[in-house]
């Protein structure tokens, strides 16, 4: 799983009665492939994965595997509180035909770093697919410590990391540790610090905002690969301005509803999906917030009108 | 649901292959009823609920409803990350025949206080059973704020609260607020501050340690009802010493594994269950830790030998 | 230093140009003595101690020693970031003639628990006065852990504890540990949980609200000593309602400015001090907030009018 | 105060009896100037400023002003809990002849963002020197929020920021906000993310490790000015390895004692200062830790032997 580049966490369009909207999801997937992305991460946090039961999750994977047809690697999040439930999702993902799994630490239950290692070991032993560890303390409320990641790598239990911790210094220290291990793949989950992450050794990025502007992130990645840091910074600063679409719901809504809701609203305004609501109890963006998203899209050149 | 008194969160004995051990669970339930408890809380945090899938959860409820046969009220935890998944569990619990539900805030996803109100509203609308709100920030990482609980009460969406937040001052302010609403029921989730909680207005307690010594907690409750606070404190202090069984695994294990593991180990030493292991990735107490649990049980008069 | 009972942290009235208002401070001290308090804590957090330089602090102590004239024990806070600066204040306090010191952990600098022990040892070696350790993580951002307090007691470095941590469970475990050491004195810094603190073994309380209603807290303490917990709770619940005077500034001001400002405003309305402002940059209560304080005082029977 | 470049926070060498070691301090200052630094920050956190009383602080400034003799700008930290005490230090600093002040939010007392603005306003009105705001939540436990900094800039109350918050994403958003205000100066307090900070718009860096290797940081800054990011990263990675000297004391000591102690130990091993101890209660590095510091210095080419 020598992943690299831009691997957006795909949002899940919903029908009015909260089912997976297959035609809309296919349009989103084609939009991302047309944007030049290097992989796709299904069933990540931005997909509302923890709102979906097993049949809905299987449905998402079935559609993605069919639509993408091997053009880019597919990662599947297998996110649920505890080991055996994660393994059940992992088996479903394997059956669906994805190329790798994305695994968080257990949550709700408080788990020690040693127990986290056992969690990854159990998933690895149950399902023979590459695993990307997913460090997202804002959701699971425990950090995958550097020493833990070192053990997981040394024992061959993970092949990469998606770091959504926001701790850029720690990420850099990780990157330095992994310099001698080119097969281990480091991705940042940040939308806003991609140029610097690539400069200090990341192999790529998993940007929620990449749902809206995949070509922008691909251009940023290409500039970084050429070491044209001036251009990379220029694109990154435009994407930071665009990221304002993710902030229009707060403080009325939760940050999650504001972020995912902002991405879905933008995709609706771009004509890719017919609805921008999310699973309960997330509040969708209201009319005023939607107008602000529209103005941001227009200001950044993604919408002709408004 | 005019609940009161001691309502232990029942642990779930497991067979060696991680299934619900029905004979052992029945023995634990009889042990609790023999201890005089006033209700039972199935599928709470101490039951390892988030480790169990829906069939396992239904199995626990089926056994409990059958074994208890209406002698005391049964509450069922319906704990999973998001609204619709909670509702699915709530329907299962209703079908099993329990008397009430215990509902936390959503987790993994970060949810605003307003969205939490909508979460409770959706559960209420889906399933016509009394609801006890469960404030457990150490697991869900959001507090059920006093203002939120006020809204939930005012809108008739909850009938009680289990407070496992450890914030005794806030609990007292809640108790004062609810003095004019005798139908609203306040329970502490603390094992260690039950006498003071009852003194300041709690209606009862949901003590994990009550699995091991239900009669002790019932005696404490009875002393409090007579306002014999000297006796209540005396019993509470003995139970605090006994609570040391929940601390023998740390720091080797997580606090959760140490606590639930300590309760299960004690139940095994008391001859009630044949195994003390937990679901993966929780590490069970080792031989040395088990000996320390045995010594504590003996010192507090629950075991003749050791 | 066999302290017990109600030991209010005395506020510091200020002249319009931010100097210690001696006549007003003397009136507050007489008000507290008239209320029957069992000791006085000068230069605590409620006194705005960290706003005062050494001459102002000496002035406060000079006035208090003179006014109190040995009728009750006097404790002096010696609160500043680091060891040698604390010792300098401790020498001033000794020279002023107080009976004991109140010492926090170092702050601003992050200090380990072992370094905290050395901090207390250095103060003890420099100044031969009894020391009450002051656990106030909300200000110093480190907890005096139970193991640390055990070391401090075992090595004879402290004679008591003022616990303003809000962690009532930990306080109870401390009280149990200290049952065999009757000379060690445990005080709660809470205004709201005094009855329960006394029930579980505290020797007394250091309530900021005691500036306003010392007789109320003395009556609560007396009820607790008689083990009349019904009366103690009744008084405590009245004092909880009165505590609303400390909450009228937020969220406009900081919690500190709202609390100390509320106490000072009440003392002004009671005719004891002419000004209710605080040191910069704390914002004093405004006219609207002052009216609300007045209404609360009237509702609780401390003001005839309003 | 158009500051830029490398402005180390100068450590304070101490004599065996804890006084400022003037000859050693002069050697450190010459070492920094020889290294090509662009300014000096006296009485910062690394100087143990909160351990020093006013005379010691004045002594440090007197020596620095004399030794530096105008060759580079001098900033003075005026760090103490509250406004008027900060102003007293600011007057001393002005009298000593420094070029600017470095001001934190108040600490110990909890202060609102609005009160923080008043704090800066009061310092500004009292002392007519440029002010660099110092965001160091790990010490003062409050963040200088972006909206607060916006107000401080708009009202002309500060001329720059030293960001030691470790929140690189927020720092970048600040840098973007300030692009239209070239007179406002942004410095990172990080030792480890200097290349990326400069790439995203910082004007310079205040590295504690710059005490040990000022020429290294100057070379990094020069590479960044030429936009030679490959070279900048190469130097940064060497300095990250060198930073290990700051980590040898933990967990035996506090992070502060380990960091400042590591810098002082390195300066002693480099022959610049005769003692490496710190103010009480900080524990100095022991013999074993010192040997590890020596090995790191040798491995990074700063010491011939070892």
Automatic annotation (TrEMBL), chains A, B, C, D:
The active site is at 134 (proton donor/acceptor), 162 (schiff-base intermediate with substrate). Pyruvate binds at residue 206. Signal peptide: none annotated. GO terms for molecular function: 4-hydroxy-tetrahydrodipicolinate synthase activity. GO terms for biological process: small molecule metabolic process. Keywords: Lyase, Schiff base. SMART domains: DHDPS (SM01130). Belongs to the DapA family. This is Dihydrodipicolinate synthase. It comes from Deinococcus phoenicis.
